[in-house]
Amino acid sequence: TALVGSMKAVVSTQSTGEVYVEHRLNKFLELLLKYLHDIVGKHSDADVLRNCAFTYRYFIDNELSIQTTAAVAFRQLIDELVSSFHSLITDGLESENEQGEFKLLVAMKRLYAFYQAHDITDLADIEKDVSAIITKANQQQINDDITATAVMLMQVILSWALYRTNPSEPSKPELKKLRKSVVQLIQQCDELIQFGVASVQKEAFITVCDMLIIFAPQLKQNANYSSLIVVPDKSVQIRLRDYVMTTVFAEEDPQQFQEDEEDEAKTEVLIEKRRVLASFGKLIAFNIIEMRLAAPIFAQYVKSYQDYGDIVKQMMSKARELNRTKCMRTQLLSLEQLFEELRDQNEGRIDRSSEEWTKIKDLAHRFALMAGVDNYKSRQAVVTFHREGIIYCLLRNGPPDGSPPSNIVFFDILAETTFKLMDIDKKGPKGLLAFLEEQLMKEGEIPEDEIEWGPLRTYRTALVGSMSEPYMYYGKRKMVGSPMRVVEVKRPRDDYVIDNWQASGSGNYVQ
């Protein structure tokens, strides 16, 4: 590795190729190419092979006279690698032939390394064979490393196929064939994610994410590529999200690592988990999957802050750039899921002094801070967050029976985010107090001093600003005396126009 790294550092300088030309060192060039050929034939380490591949690329991708000599040596090497691959397929896929499996795996690793640096499609017609290996992996047990390498190799083959198309006048048969291959690869990887072993699942997941990004709706910027766009269906999106939750955020087995290698092994596992999470985050950033599906991941922001907080925060930031309202709806769903999970763990009751409850409130506060410093830009999103939150808090399975709704405690969560609301959205004629009162009218008479209704009083205090306030005009009614006692009155004339977003048709808050 050190030898090839040094060699790459030397040839990567602009003057190296000129040295062979100016000083007529053709013999030394041929000797160097021979050494590269021998190294590729003797090694299987990914870094070594990658460095060799990019060294060849430097010699070939220039206008110097050495290009011809290097290109001939390169084609000879690729021919040998492809021939070796074809001759090893049959023996390598037999589960009882360990030596054949190893040789096939090494051949595939070498081809993958060179495919990363060069488009060798014209020299290596291996697409059908690689696809056949992945198909066979879904039908019967074959070597896991071979399956994972085949998935990675197929991805880079299809990426080069897209690169080779003519953007101005692409061949329709080529595009049709390419799309068919892409869809097939995604379907194959989807099956591997469901039924493969851990190492294969990871590569299949990352490949699906990368292919969805490469063939995303952004391709329609060139109308000629519109037929290549691949949009995953809802079931695939859910499986990708579930894989992230079970792989990244699952609790680790304390006996998973041995003491002498614990720190190093944990670091490697953490790097791989962050890679998986980042791949899913790109799907959110490019608006490829439905944003609401990321709610369980947003919910992990505080709990997993040390290991994944930066990635989750960036994911939410990109989601907010796409659509502020959808982002806050997703964050609200995250809080609702955490609330229901905690309630189920405590047999339907919430200890408002518990550490778990405090963490959920802290998460809500952080979500509100992420809405941005410009309250005007986030105004509609924050109001929508509270309106839908109020509806959730007062949600019942049946008619009112005098007892508080089962979600009443969630008002404590909403109270943590009221600081992002403008005063007019709190207490204006069409503000949240008016909306809250409208929803409370469905509850009938509400007891003034019962502890169970305390979260509602807490939330109203956060909106009004003071519990001692005798009354407040809003909507068509007002609070008189106790904030929990509602009576019918006529509202005095108020010509103030609240908000332009309600008049623009954005008032449908609940889907």
Q: Tell me how many strands there are.
A: 3
Number of helices: 22
Poorly predicted parts:
466-511
Work out the radius of gyration: 31 Å
Shape assignment: elongated
Provide the residue-averaged pLDDT: 83
Mind describing the biggest β-sheet?
Answer: 3 strands, antiparallel
Main sheet: strand order: 1-2-3
Order of helices and strands: HHHHHHHHHHHHHHHHHHHHHEEEH
Class by helix and strand content? mainly alpha
What key attributes describe this structure?
three-stranded antiparallel beta sheet; mainly alpha; 3 strands; 22 helices; 511 residues
What does the model show?
It contains 22 helices and three strands. The protein has helices at 2-11, 16-22, 26-42, 46-60, 66-92, 98-117, 127-139, 144-164, 172-195, 198-214, 234-248, 262-285, 295-298, 305-322, 324-345, 355-369, 379-393, 411-415, 423-427, 432-440, 454-464, 500-503, and strands spanning 471-474, 477-480, 486-488. The chain has a three-stranded antiparallel β-sheet with strand order 1-2-3, covered by helices on one side. A hairpin with a 2-residue loop joins strand 1 (471-474) and strand 2. The two termini are 57 Å apart.
